[in-house]
Amino acid sequence: MTAGSAVLCFLSLILIAHADDHTHKYAEEEPVVVWANKVGPFNNPLETYKYFTLPLCPPSDADLVEKFPSLGEALSGDELIEHTKLRITFKENVVKHQLCSQTIDEYEATRLRDAIQQQYWFQFYIDDLPVWATIGKVIQTKKGEQPYIYTHHFFSLSYNGDRIVQANLTAEEERAIPLQGGTLDFTYSVHWEKSSLPYEQRFRRYLDNQFFEHKIHWFSIFNSFMLVMFLAAVVFIILSRTLKQDYIRYQKEADEEYDDEKDTNFSGEYGWKQVQPEVFRVPPYPCLFCAIVGTGYQLIYMALAVIVLAIIFVLYASRGTLLTLCIIVWALSSYVCGHYSASLFVHYTAINPGLGGDWIRTMMFSATLFPGICCFIVWLMNFVAWYWHSSQAIPFLAMVVVVLIWGLGSFPLVIAGTIIARTRKIDPKDIPRVGTLPRVIPPGAWYTSRTTFILLGGILPFGSIWVELYFVFTSFWNYKFYYVYGFLFLVFLMVIIVTMCTSIVATYILLNAEDHRWQWTSFLLSSSIGGYMFMYAVYFFFTKTKMSGLLQTTLYFGYMGLFSFGFGLMAGAIGFVAANAFVNRIYRNIKVD
Question: pTM here?
Answer without folding.
Answer: 0.89
